[in-house]
Write a structure and sequence with these properties.
Elements (H helix, E strand, L loop, with lengths): L1 H12 L9 H18 L17 E5 L5 E6 L2 H4 L6 H13 L8 E6 L3 H9 L4 E6 L7 H5 L19 E4 L3 H11 L6 H4 L6 H13 L5 H15 L9
Parallel strand pairs: 3-4, 4-5
Antiparallel strand pairs: 1-2, 1-3
Helix pairs in contact: 2-9, 2-10
Length: 241
């Protein structure tokens, strides 16, 4: 009769199983969903210059403590300015608002792999990390190219650019699904693809995941709750500053 009691006591005393996902990987997943949700709130059904804000691309900025502090959406059509990518707008407006000189310790989560312009600005403002959702077969790998070391090829070649930015793809299933969908639509420009009916449900899925997810790590649950409040306060359309 005592054996079941001892077994029960042993089970109660056993430590809880560790989370199945690391703290940082889970945080990257959460903020990737948030970047998609920021875009989904102001979804553009077309990429045409005269009838859209810009492309369905956006980003969020996370500080060294792991909290989201700013956001940006692509606005190249509304501003008639091809530099107005979501990441550029995010960095410029946050630095201007806070009067900071740089973004050391910050992470940028962006829905599409950053281009050369955005990568250069991330490098010069000393962003520590960037995590992208969808990969860009044409304009991607810009941060990696800045770290190429061609000096072994002979005179006149170059070493890596200073201030390397750590870059990785988001670990969430939505990013993988968007990559797979684009593989089937390669005849389209990626920005046209991002306005298509094939993509909107995937962005909606990311927003739904953000709304219903329960974090495995308590520290991430605190940041997830904060991210949800941040999204709820977001204006539907971005002020053109």
């Amino acid at each position: 009769m005592l054996l079941p009691v001892f077994s029960l006591l042993s089970w109660l005393a056993a430590p809880a199983a560790p989370p199945a996902i690391s703290l940082q990987r889970e945080r990257d997943q959460i903020y990737a969903w948030l970047a998609y949700a920021v875009v989904y709130q102001d979804w553009q059904p077309t990429a045409q210059p005269d009838s859209s804000r810009g492309y369905n691309i956006g980003s969020v900025l996370v500080n060294a403590d792991g909290y989201v502090v700013h956001w940006g959406r692509n606005c190249i059509n509304a501003t008639r300015n091809l530099t107005q990518h979501g990441e550029v707008r995010l960095m410029q407006s946050y630095l201007q608002r806070t009067r900071q000189r740089a973004l050391r310790g910050y992470t940028i989560y962006t829905t599409l792999e950053p281009c050369a312009m955005c990568s250069g600005m991330m490098t010069l403002t000393q962003v520590t990390r960037t995590v992208f959702g969808q990969s860009d077969p044409e304009y991607g790998n810009a941060l990696q190219r800045l770290q190429l070391d061609s000096r072994a090829c002979g005179p006149g070649h170059y070493g890596p650019y200073p201030r390397a930015v750590e870059v990785s793809q988001a670990p969430d299933a939505v990013s993988c699904a968007i990559d797979s969908a684009y593989d089937r639509h390669r005849a389209e420009r990626i920005v046209q693809f991002l306005a298509s009916a094939a993509v909107r449900p995937l962005y909606a899925r990311a927003a739904a995941q953000l709304a219903r997810y329960r974090a495995q790590h308590p520290d991430n649950q605190v940041r997830l709750d904060s991210a949800r409040r941040f999204l709820a306060r977001l204006p539907k359309t971005e002020e053109l500053r």
